[in-house]
Amino acid sequence: MSFSLYSPMEGDNWGETVFVEGQAPPPPDSDVNNASWLRVSAGYFETLGTKIIQGRSFREEDSPTSQPVAVVNQTFAKRFFKDGNPIGQHFGDLDMKHAGLFEIVGVTEDTQYREPTRKIPPMFFLPAMQRVVYDDPRFLTFEDRNHYLDAIELKTRGSVPGLEPQVRSALAGVNPDLAIIDFTAFAKQVDDNFTQQAMIAKLTSLFGFLALVLASVGLYGVTAYTVERRTNEIGIRMALGAGRLNVLKLVLRGALLQMAIGLVIGIPITIAAGRAMSAQLFGVKPYDPRILLLTTAALVVAAFLAAVIPARRAATLDPIRALRSE
């Protein structure tokens, strides 16, 4: 079991200006040293599956009587420590005179605690069991507030039937006033943050399919119209000895050439549009070679089928009737 001030990706974690020991303070009203932070218990990172890149995570030994410690994310380490190794360094918040307050004991991988498309900010984590005694009453009030923990993460081995009633009963046994407002699986909580992106992706796929259908219908119409316009030419060719196979190749060559020109123009535009789309949808690549290959194959098949019917019709024309056509 692990406790945190706010559940991941809720976006309600605290934010403070960071003062690093041995470094000059940031300019007044500047956000260059701003960092987001959470207060969590031992086992929090292991429960959520957050990897520790350097150092260690929090332990039960990080108590009110031990050295105040902190764990930072990779962005924090890169922002405030040029060598990328903050282990053993000190920083503080609220005021420059507290710059040596917290000792950094670990670095975690960057994890998203806000909207999926937002840039991950510098973050640090403080143990739930440790307190800081400030000499300013305002800071003491703030310290009291950030110790109210309102989220619990439970790590289980697979699905546990009837888990929610058991958790509610266990918390009621600790304190009857502890009310569980929401009981949600972590995977669902993460999925809920992608609802809008998933809807946009489905709509985009639907519009893409409709565009493919319209392109196929349009290609058929253009090919049929071209054959109709060239009826007299086809009659002359057949009168001069061109066989049905030659006429079929002629019509198919024209249709496939149009498709090739369209692909040469369309693929770069698709890649450029994909780059723009990837900035709006989390986890979407600018382009996927497999998707491009599949789409190209679908267009080739659609172009072939759209051209076969007019081509066969042209190949079966009576040369005399074709020559009379206007």
Protein architecture, described:
This protein is of the alpha+beta class and 326 residues long. It is built from ten helices and nine strands. It has helices spanning 44-48, 74-80, 137-145, 163-174, 186-192, 195-229, 231-239, 244-278, 289-315, 319-324, and strands at residues 2-4, 14-20, 34-40, 52-55, 69-73, 90-93, 102-108, 123-127, 151-153. The strands form two sheets. Strands 2-3-8-5-7-6 form a six-stranded mixed β-barrel. The protein has a two-stranded antiparallel sheet with strand order 1-9.
Strand content: 5-15%
Total DSSP helices: 10
SSE arrangement, N to C: EEEHEEHEEEHEHHHHHHH
Shape: elongated
The portion of residues assigned to helices is 40-55%
Q: Report how far apart the termini are.
A: 84 Å
Largest sheet: 6 strands, mixed, barrel
Short description:
By secondary structure, the chain is an alpha+beta fold. The chain has helices at residues 44-48, 74-80, 137-145, 163-174, 186-192, 195-229, 231-239, 244-278, 289-315, 319-324; strands at 2-4, 14-20, 34-40, 52-55, 69-73, 90-93, 102-108, 123-127, 151-153. It is built from 10 helices and 9 strands.
